[in-house]
Write a structure and sequence with these properties.
This protein starts with a strand and ends in a 29-residue tail after the last helix. It is rod-shaped, with a radius of gyration of 27 Å. Helix content is about 50%, strand content about 10%. It has a domain of about 100 residues. The longest helix is centred in the middle third of the chain and has 27 residues. It has a three-stranded antiparallel beta sheet with strand order 1-4-5, with no helix packed on it. By secondary structure, the protein is mostly helical. Keywords: Membrane, Transmembrane, Transmembrane helix.
Length: about 140
């Protein structure tokens, strides 16, 4: 069950949608199996971008001026402020979690530096020559 107040549900859409759109673009450009380093860097950037977008939207929605009212029973001044939260946490603070996730993907990308992409087993190498299939004879023309 997801609990939100005001426009707090946008946090789920922003923090999930921006990285998903980035992954869709990555797969559309590079195909279904991009290099691990490329994948980690793109995920890191998209999670960071989603966090920044969520911070900006949360600050805009929660930062508005409050409405000042007078309570009829007590005569006291009451200020009503807009509140947009997800699980009782204001929207913009979910961006800290996104920043930590981006840091984790950045560390994963750093771990991929210097690694060569694995070659498929039995695949051609730079020094090998193609061999004839079994049951056939090789002839030079």
């Amino acid at each position: 069950m997801i609990i939100w107040q005001g426009w707090g549900i946008l946090t789920v859409l922003i923090l999930g949608g921006v990285p998903a759109a980035g992954m869709a673009a990555l797969f559309a450009v590079l195909g279904p199996k991009p290099a691990p380093l490329t994948f980690s860097i793109v995920v890191m950037l998209m999670v960071l971008l989603g966090g920044l977008a969520n911070w900006w939207v949360g600050r805009r929605l929660n930062g508005g001026p409050g409405r000042e009212l007078i309570d009829a029973r007590t005569g006291q001044r009451v200020i009503l402020r807009p509140r947009h939260s997800l699980f009782w946490i204001p929207m913009q603070y979910w961006s800290v979690l996104s920043l930590l996730a981006a840091l984790g993907f950045g560390i994963a990308a750093a771990g991929q530096l210097g690694r060569e992409a694995p070659r498929p087993p039995g695949g051609p190498t730079a020094t090998s020559t193609p061999k004839a299939p079994p049951g056939t004879t090789e002839r030079q023309i």
